[in-house]
Design goal:
This protein is mainly alpha-helical and about 550 residues long. It has three domains: about 30-260, no CATH class; about 275-385, no CATH class; about 400-540, Alpha Horseshoe (Serine Threonine Protein Phosphatase 5, Tetratricopeptide repeat), CATH 1.25.40. It contains 26 helices and eight strands. The protein has helices at about 40-55, 75-90, 95-100, 100-110, 115-130, 135-145, 165-170, 175-185, 185-220, 260-275, 275-280, 290-295, 310-325, 330-345, 350-360, 365-375, 380-385, 395-405, 410, 415-430, 435-445, 450-465, 465-485, 490-505, 510-520, 530-540; strands at about 10-15, 20, 25-30, 35, 70-75, 230-235, 245, 250-255. The strands form three sheets. The protein has a four-stranded mixed sheet with strand order 5-6-8-7, sandwiched between helices. Strands 1-2 form a two-stranded antiparallel ribbon. Helix 13 (about 310-325) packs across helix 15 (about 350-360) and helix 22 runs antiparallel to helix 23. It is globular and about 65 Å long.
Length: about 550
């Protein structure tokens, strides 16, 4: 149950005994002089607004004070400062991101009223790094905050090589933020707001502790101190969208305490618990590789799983454990499993049966995992999947609908040409490169150079083993996306073309050029989240094709 928010009183006193009310100007002394926030006393009024956002009645923490530091709930001055800077720079949140929080809307107007050399430099920087999708813009700044060191310098805590791709785009933001932090005196705001943040953090510990107890209990695992960590960060300025990050050994959930994020926390914490298992027991996965091959025929299976077998297994296991923990009625469980399977998560059904055996056993999941995999009847499942009708949306359509972005270059196509593109996508998903190439060629005959058709033709060409010709086609997509001034590229085709070129460079041993391509993919405005994830993986490690045993139709 959400605690009721309490509004700040119209007139209060700050630490210096000044009255905060209508019409008062609060000077904020900056390095180059005095900033004025306007007639509504922006700096301190912002403080009152944020207190009204943050206040929640504290509850007893389910996580004991002496619990291992592996799991925690915290507030982050880096996140606070970054979000204040984002709003001050002119960030326009979409309704699904900002939510209906009137206090945040007023706060944004107060931050926008700040003026000074650092504030203007911040706005210029923001204009040079803003993306078409507001959610994607906020996402990259949140990632930056998670890898930034403490104020006042906000120096990055990891090396350039280890930076996530979206943080790479903001690698030089630390100095800009540090100057604004000093000029706007955000340290003073943070110090006065910290008690409210502490209360919100305390309130989050109880539901977090319940999730930890439930999921570790089901998996029969004991949390022990180590380098891996799972942290829930409380930050009301992120609006209604919960952000989840996996930064190597660090798992982070950034949430607004006024929004129910329990489902996202449960899902993320299960990943924290089971992500290492498919990697540790990689040899045991070979027997279920034919089922993975079947899953790759599912048009809606996200691209990020198309070359990451262990990640696919992990995602299916997390889905299956979630369904077992929820203890749904039979009809609802069947509907959930069928839905997962239609999306391509074909291991969920057999894993649920395997988990029933796990529940009757004694070892923890970390020891039982090989038995879990061995209990899957691969032959029976493989034959059953031959009759499964996967959901008919293409990978492209799925990625576009997820991000709210439709390729501008294909939006104005005639209906019959759009249908040909969709047919080509479906044939790619069905591993029919010849049929796909014919469909894409029809579009190219009618609209030469059409980026989405070029991209589809390139993928079809790769599937036919013609790597050099595929490279030429991907390069044409990249050239189309950057050549004509004022032209609006197709973000999905452009981002994935950069990624495929990077993978080809990796396979050719040209790592430096591969990194250029992966980072270029991250700079594409409106790039889908799946492309972002693929680019991030490409930056972190050299691309290697997934090793799978050949499937059999016998």
């Amino acid at each position: 149950m959400k605690a009721k928010r309490q509004r700040a009183k119209p007139c209060e006193a700050d630490a210096r005994g000044q009255t905060i009310g209508e019409g008062l100007q609060i000077p904020i002394t900056g390095k180059q002089g005095v900033l004025r926030a306007g007639p509504r006393a922006a700096a301190v009024f912002v403080l009152v607004l944020l207190v009204s956002i943050m206040v929640r009645a504290p509850v007893s923490a389910a996580l004991p004070a002496g619990a291992p530091a592996t799991v925690s709930a915290e507030a982050s001055p880096q996140l606070f400062a970054t979000m204040c800077a984002l709003y001050a720079a002119g960030f326009e949140a979409e309704s699904s991101t900002l939510g209906s929080d009137a206090e945040v809307s007023i706060l944004r107007s107060q931050l926008l009223a700040l003026h000074g050399p650092a504030a203007e430099a911040l706005r210029a920087y923001y204009r040079g790094h803003v993306l078409a999708n507001p959610g994607a813009t906020m996402s990259r700044y949140i990632t930056f905050a998670l890898v930034a060191g403490p104020p006042p310098n906000f120096a990055l805590t990891i090396t350039h090589e280890d930076l996530p791709p979206d943080a790479l785009a903001l690698e030089d933001f630390s100095g800009v933020l540090a100057q604004f932090y000093q000029e706007a005196q955000l340290d003073r705001l943070w110090m006065q707001l910290q008690p409210g943040y502490d209360r919100a953090v305390a309130a989050e510990r109880q539901p977090l502790g319940q999730i930890v107890l439930l999921e570790t209990g089901y998996l029969r695992e004991i949390l022990r101190p180590g380098k891996r960590s799972f942290t829930v960060y409380v930050e009301p300025l992120v609006g209604s969208r919960t952000n989840v990050r996996n930064l190597g050994d660090r798992y982070a959930v950034v949430l607004n305490p006024g929004v129910d994020s329990s489902a996202e926390i449960r899902h993320a914490f299960l990943h924290f618990m089971v992500d290492p298992l498919p990697i540790r027991y990689g040899n045991n996965l070979k027997q279920i590789a034919p089922l993975y091959d079947a899953a790759l025929r599912a048009p809606r299976l996200p691209f990020e799983f198309h070359d990451d077998f262990s990640a696919f297994v992990t995602e299916c296991l997390v889905h299956a454990v979630e369904l077992r923990i929820r203890r749904l009625p039979a009809a609802q469980l069947a509907a959930e499993v069928n839905g997962d399977e239609s999306e391509g998560y074909v291991l969920v059904r057999p894993l649920i049966r395997a988990l029933q055996k796990f529940e009757a056993s004694q070892p923890p999941m970390s020891a039982y995992f090989p038995d879990l995999i061995r209990s899957i009847d691969v032959g029976t499942e493989f034959n059953r999947l031959k009759t499964v009708a996967f959901a008919p949306a293409s990978n492209y359509e799925d990625a576009a609908s997820t991000t709210g972005t439709v390729g501008a270059s294909s939006a104005n196509l005639k209906p019959e040409l759009a249908a040909m593109l969709a047919d080509g996508d479906r044939r790619i998903a069905a591993q029919d490169p010849v049929g796909a190439a014919l469909a894409f060629q029809r579009v190219l005959d009618a609209v030469p150079g059409q980026p989405r058709a070029l991209y589809g033709m390139a993928v079809a060409t790769i599937l036919q083993g013609q790597a050099e010709h595929a490279r030429e086609l991907f390069e044409q997509v990249v050239g189309t996306g950057s050549a004509a001034p004022g032209a609006v590229p197709d973000p999905v085709a452009l981002a994935w073309s950069h990624i495929y070129l990077g993978r080809m460079d990796d396979l050719d041993g040209n790592r430096e050029q591969a990194l250029v391509e992966y980072r270029a993919a991250m700079s594409v405005a409106g790039a889908p989240e799946a492309a972002t994830a693929a680019a991030q993986k490409g930056v972190q490690e050299q691309y290697q094709p997934a090793e799978r045993e050949p499937s059999s139709d016998k």
